[in-house]
Amino acid sequence: MRLCDDDLGTPARLGAATVRLTIDGRTVEAPEGTSLLRAAAQAGIRIPRLCASERLEPFGSCRLCLVQIEGGRGYPASCTTPVAEGMVVHTHTPRLTELRRGVMELYLSDHPLDCLTCSANGDCELQEMAALVGVRRIRYPAGGQKHAGMPVDGSNPYFAFDAEKCIVCARCVRACDEIQGSFALTVAGRGFAAAVTAGQGEGFLGSECVSCGACVQACPTAALMEKRVIEEGLPERAVVTTCAYCGVGCSFRVELKGEVPVRLVPDGRGRANEGHSCVKGRFAFGYATHPDRVRSPLVRGSIDEPWREVGWDEAIAHVAAEFRRIQARYGREAIGAVASSRCTNEEVYLVQKLVRAAFGNNNVDNCARVCHSPTGYGLKRTFGESAGTQDFASVDHADVIMVIGANPTEAHPVFGARLKRRLRQGARLIVIDPRTTGLVHGPHVRAEYHLALRPGTNVALLNAMAHVIVTEGLVDESFVAQRCEADSFARWRAFIADPRHAPEAVEAETGVAAEQVRAAARCYASADNAAIYYGLGVTEHSQGATTVMAIANLAMATGNIGRPGVGVNPLRGQNNVQGACDMGAFPHELPGYRHVSEPVARAAFEAHWGVTISPEPGLRLPHMLAEAREGRFKGIYIQGEDLAQSEPDLEHVHAALEAMECVVVQDLFLNETARYAHVFLPGASFLEKDGTFTNAERRISRVRRAIPPLAGLEDWEITQRLAQAMEYPMAYSHLSEIMDEIARLTPQFSGVSYTLLERLGSVQWPCNEEAPHGTPLMHRERFVRGEGSFVLTEYVPTSERPDGRRELLLTTGRVLAQYNVGTQTRRTANGVWCSADVLEIHPQDAEARGIAEGDEVCIESRMGQTRLRAKVSERVRPGVVFTTFHFPASKTNVLVTDGSDWATNCPEYKVVAVRVERAAGASA
Amino acid sequence: MNPAEDLRSEAVAVPSAAYRARLLAMLERVCANCRAEPDPVAAVLEHLRRFWHPWLRQALTALDAQERAQASETARQVLERLDAG
Amino acid sequence: MNPARETPTVVYVPRDAAALAVGADAVAEAIRAEAARRALPLQLKRTGSRGLFWLEPLVEVATPQGRIAYGPVQPEDVPGLFAAGFLAGAAHPLRLGVPAALPYLQGQDRLLHARLGVIEPDRVDDYLATGGYRALEQALALEPPELVAQVQRSGLRGRGGAAFPAGIKWDTVRRAPGPTKYVVCNADEGDSGTFADRMVLEGDPFSLIEGMTIAALAVGATQGYVYLRVEYPHAYRTLTAAIELARARGYLGPDVCGSGRAFELEVRVGAGAYVCGEETALLESLEGKRGLVRAKPPLPALAGLFGRPTLVHNVLTLATVPVILAEGAEAYRDYGCGNSRGTLSLQLAGNVRRPGLVEKAFGMSLGELLYDYGGGTASGRPIRAVQVGGPLGAYLSPSHFDLPLDYETFAAAGAMLGHGGIVVFDDTVDMARMARHAFAFCADESCGKCTPCRIGSVRGREALERVLAGGPVEAELALVRELAATMRDASLCALGGMTAYPVLGALEHFPEDFTARARSGRPVQG
């Protein structure tokens, strides 16, 4: 039986009125605009169909779903016929049976009919429909025109297109257009020659295809099929879990044979992705079973020695002994931990508990330090909660969308596809980004305003927009009066109205024409619903937190908070970085964002944990490293983060790691940081564990174990054993017990339990007595902090500026096919799309330096230097160069300076003054 | 172990000059970003209290007169208040 | 005598593509040269065609007795015509007399096509002098609902083939909410043997422009498009020139005739796909996409071009609108019979002695058309079959020649008038080949979207090829009958749906052509 039987055939319509009609003698009710096909399906009546899917607009091509309507003429297709009051419909009549058999006979007259040896055998809608329709013979003799023998397009590493099995239902083409928005596929040719074609015939790999898998998902036959299914056969069982790549948090079905994952299929019921996926989550899971995975704990006396395989007991005992030794000699504060935002909420919670209860300090941090810590700081101060305000579905209601320093089509592809869909429906787009991202000029998508500012001038630009809003009477006065602090608003209004913030005054600084800024500000402020989405281009700056607050100010001043279609939405990078922050993996905050100095919060944990918690903030990650070089910080437990590649000022990081006496790395692979480690504890991938992840929309989703941990333990078990070895009692027998403890101690999570998650599928926090089913939209009636607070956002230019020697500004980002430092994606076939980091440079800057496309160039910052190949591109503006940091060999982060956000020390990855020249010895 | 006690028990020498300079630069950035606040010095002190590990605040107090001479007015006042404990 | 003071004689030579195809340009040049040689003052006017194709090139001379026609004229006839004094309307073997008195024209009801062959298509003043833009003037004084009501009262139905009541469509678009609406003219005249749209475009383009302007006023559109088939280069030049002239004279643009109302008109050229004559495929193509048929609903009247309410009509329908406004809805309605009101533009082609355009009130019999106007076959052999309504129209046999030409009667007979194209075949026709051709045409022109049309047309063609090759007949014909019925009832649009008409018509009315025995003794048409 197929797994997608719950597909109702056409999308839901939210008509205001309910229509009553009769289908096959049964009274059926459906919202106005609903198709007959869907109305029938909802009533449990299955009408045969092949071209229809509830994720695609009705198309009406297969002509199987025909029905008869009393008083109507002919045999309308039920997928394209809307319900009408009083309609009497028959879905099965002798004539309909004849017609369906006639049509199905035509399909089968051009199909290989090799069902028993077909890769879709048992998972084929054509097969199923043929059975349903009851075709018993094919009267068209062999020898007629056929598509048999057409070549298979196997260019994509993960799936193949076999044209002879294609029934030209165009579901793949429509999925590419309507869901992903790539418009990479077409049906080329007319009539019988009509054939699904990638691009202009280049094949899938050479086309605009982004390998999101929507076409494969949509295909009813074996025409588009995962290569692994072709090789392995159909999976036997499925486990629903949550993707471990970006912060979208897609729900997937892991389909397996025995303990071998065959494919990952997006789960239509997952509310973050609604059945969509990207090339990473859908296909790039091969790293989980890659031979490089470490399967046994490793220990060594010094980092010059070779590794020695040991058992878990020995490894854990060794770490505990070392940490206790260090604390005895150098003091309690001399050790700390980095929790992994790739791990589950429960695992992160345990790491911070280990630190606070067993280490006895607050020296715990997580990778949000280097990405969205400014978001937490900024949104907490202005709105009162350190998280985005909306759910993803909110974007469907936005009329103006402002994307600031984010590249969702590459870094958050599934949300990016949803955003593009809204743009194609007519929402207007403002992009604030130094680079021409895919959203600025995409297929059927265009930014009305692209404010290509000079890197590092976000605050100046956003202040200028606010200035326009305040001085041109665009403030939503009633919202501000009802919802925000009168005094902080008055102060802010006076501050921002100062002429020094006028677009004209900052034009030279930002490099954006004042008139463009004014127009964009008016566009944002005058929309019915305007939403802001932002990424690391906002946070990874010396004024990251200030920028976040400037964004919050804009949203409050224009009343764009508290309903669908609006809000302030950080696009979070890691699958569980929201969760890692929620769980208190911060040196200054306990779970639920409560400051360690708050006696009430501390007391609750102290009582439950039976320890005393320090009221002073612990060391932030960069300060752990700095203190290591100063000789005070001596031991670190690093869970799933590759500091030695991902941190800025890498030479300093390497020196700091070398200065420590015990570096413990817990990871899937011997990563860059493991070079400096004394103990390596092999962790488990997301396929090997239970737990929960929290995505960028605060959605808590279950992670479910599909295969046993390769090295024997899930990550939380390792942490628990370490705590026990350090003589702090921990004895959880199941993850749900950890979640229960989180719920008991954390107000935002008090209603969360595994039982609830099983029942609802997922839930967005806050989930408590007031919101037992969670909170898709925050700050609806009032802000979490009560009244919204306007914070003065003085623009303080970064000290990282071009000078005579370093004339260009380097900024960094990501590409679709690779993920962050590439630990996972480099161990998959995704390399066919991107196998190296390159330096994008504007043709003018390239020409001035004698650099041609593909030349090796030397890039030098005040911190260090590296070499990359040049890609001459107008996507960057003159004076700006761009690269990614997916490959260790690129050493991109060697260049990044020690500059950081003033409030959170989030590194200033996005602005590095560099000198770029053609590398000596580079071939002409 | 008394946590506060333990913080002071560190027997390591005075922070290096490079580290002191780096911390002063960090402090100056906080000061610059708080300069529009009604009471910048109080705002900076509150920020340090909430977000800076005591070791960092201690290291600031180790700045010598020459280093302090280069500090901004706000930063100098903050340092004085930190010295006072 | 001073030639400069003498009033030049006006000579009319058509520039319609049908006339050009038989040498009208060479004739015009010969006349110019001959007049120059004889130093005779002469003004040559190039008109559309009156639609008497067997007489083309049909040359007319303005005389004090009115216009006198000569034809068909070849260049070598020209010196003789001059010698005979044709500039004064003198006798000559090619002299036809006053054109309107020709029986072919005399019996017609030329409402819509009154200006064809009469005026110069690129002269606004000619158009105005023959009553042009009177209708727009009236329309500007009316409220949109009243305009729509006029069209409803006239009984006008879509002339493109589907014959949907125009007034209802207008009212739907008018009532549809939304600030942006469009009027689209389907000028993708693709039916074999049809040419009435082209003749209007080449011979009287302002009537279409005026009709579209009135339609736009009625439904609230400010932008119109004419979707023109690529095979009509002359029509393209004439129409685009006319649009420029209309704009220059204020009949198009931001302020139509000083009314403060805007209407812009653009011509878009198709890419040669028959299926783009289907209105939804046409809209897709206009949007710059592949010409793929859309499922209905939504109706284009509610969600058409770029998803906006769109009034889509054929050229003839829109060009009829000024007639209705100028003559009055009731006057128009007085023509015709039953629910088929007004006049029908019939286009005689194929094996017919007098091919051409016949505009007649609905209700004339098919036989009258074929014999009284068409004069029987060109070959002189008996008529065996006619195909009415384009390549997907039914094949009718002489037993149907008493049928009156109106929508309902034809529908009841399993046929349809379509766009008014009539193709005549004599008794040498092989109807099995014609049935095969119907499938082959559908296969060639299918957009490929729906399965019955995409695969069914090929399978039908193959089955009939097996029959033609002498294979077993009964089982194949049963399959073909069932397939044709499946295509009729299950196809997405009329292309696949109507392929059944010629196929089933041929099978029903000419069964003898399908049996191997009958086939063997029959001469085969090329």
Structure report:
The complex is a heterotrimer of chains A (924), B (85) and C (526). The mean pLDDT of chain A is 95. The termini of chain A are far apart. In chain A, a hairpin with an 8-residue loop joins β13 and β14 (308-309). In chain A, α13 (458-471) runs antiparallel to α16, α16 (503-510) crosses α17 (514-525) and α22 (621-630) packs across α24 (650-659). Chain A is of the alpha/beta class and 924 residues long. Chain A folds into five domains: 18-133, Ubiquitin-like (UB roll) (Roll), CATH 3.10.20; 152-289, Alpha-Beta Plaits, CATH 3.30.70.20; 298-371 and 576-764, Rossmann fold (3-Layer(aba) Sandwich); 390-568, Dimethylsulfoxide Reductase, domain 2 (3-Layer(aba) Sandwich); 808-918, Barwin-like endoglucanases (Beta Barrel). Chain A is built from 29 helices and 37 strands. Chain B has one domain. The radius of gyration of chain B is 13 Å and the shape is globular. Mean pLDDT of chain B is 86; it is low at 1-5 and 7-11. Chain C has 526 residues and is an alpha/beta fold. Chain C has four domains: 3-106, Glutaredoxin, CATH 3.40.30; 124-333, Rossmann fold (3-Layer(aba) Sandwich), CATH 3.40.50.11540; 337-426, Ubiquitin-like (UB roll); 431-520, de novo design (two linked rop proteins). The N and C termini of chain C lie far apart (60 Å). The model of chain C is unreliable at 521-526 (pLDDT under 50). The A-C interface holds A 58-63, 66, 74-75, 77, 79-82, 95, 98-99, 102-103, 106-107, 109-110, 139-140, 144-145, 167-168, 170, 186-187, 189-194 and C 273, 275, 290, 292, 294-297, 443-459, 462-463, 475, 479, 482-483, 485-486, 489-492.
